[in-house]
Amino acid sequence: MKKEVSEHLARVFFETESAFKSPKTTQRHFVLFALVTLGLVVSLIFGVNFLGRLGQRSTLAASPSLGVERHGCPYSLKFDFQDSPSKIEALHIDLPSLDLKDFSRVRFSSRLRGDARDLGSLKIVLESTRRESHAVYTPGVASNWRRLEIPLKEFNNIPSRSPVARISFVLEPWNVKARSGELLIDNIEFSRN
Q1: What residues make up the domain containing 180?
Q2: How many domains does the chain have?
Q3: Same structural domain for residues 133 and 76?
Q4: Does 19 share its domain with 96?
Q5: Are 88 and 125 in contact, with CB atoms under 8 Å apart?
Q6: 104 and 172: one domain?
Q7: pTM for the full model?
Q8: What tens-digit pLDDT sequence spans the chain (193 residues)?
Q9: Under a CB-based contact definition with an 8 Å cutoff, are residues 141 and 121 in contact?
């Protein structure tokens, strides 16, 4: 009988002791599991972002040109200088911070809609993320679609360290022959050749 009682007490004691140890062990395992899971999630997020940026760079580096398009219709700038000869009209197109050091030209199609046949001079402005702007004047905008091409070296002092954030097409009344109408711009692209 003593032996049975001592075995029973030993069994109860060891089961109770293991029951008390179990939550501590479970808690340690849970903390370890939570830390490993957190580490994997953070690694996955940073890994996906890094690979996504790496993929964008390689795609951009491989393409001979980078286009800016408005699907469905061209960009439009209506102007009327008959009432105010000192008013400036501008069409601003935001870009996704382009580094133009590997590009050599900007190309676009343009057309003048209205009574006038010739626009005169169109001012094209590239603006960096630091708000530095560089402009070039170009003739050749007429009442029919024309493809215009401007070497980027004509934009004096484009900073190689500052990405370009905006391209603008500006009409200044003292440089424009047409007093009213609509300027259409389409198929804007930056090319390597």
Answers
A1: 66-191
A2: 2
A3: yes
A4: no
A5: no
A6: yes
A7: 0.64
A8: 777 877 877 777 676 555 555 566 677 778 878 888 888 887 877 776 655 554 444 444 456 667 776 777 899 999 888 887 778 999 999 988 888 888 889 999 999 987 778 888 899 999 988 888 889 999 888 889 999 999 988 887 665 567 888 999 999 988 888 888 899 999 999 888 7
A9: no
